[in-house]
Amino acid sequence: MAALIREHTSSKDKLVVHTRDPAPGGEVLCRSGRRGLSVMGRRAPEVPAMAGPPRRG
Hints:
The structure is a single chain. This protein is of the alpha+beta class. It has a domain at 2-40. The protein is built from two helices and two strands. It has a two-stranded parallel ribbon with strand order 1-2. β1 (15-19), α2 (22-32) and β2 (36-40) form a beta-alpha-beta unit. α1 crosses α2 (22-32). The longest helix has 11 residues, at 22-32. The radius of gyration is 12 Å and the shape is globular.
């Protein structure tokens, strides 16, 4: 997972990792060398993941 995060993001991206267990989210961010927020919850987020920056206009 850390390799995928590193491959598909840049160091300037703002990341949120959603997990059911608090340890893996923070761990994959550390292993990937990226900074971000790890969020724990029972349910998946209701907002779909974005493939890129939000479109304006």
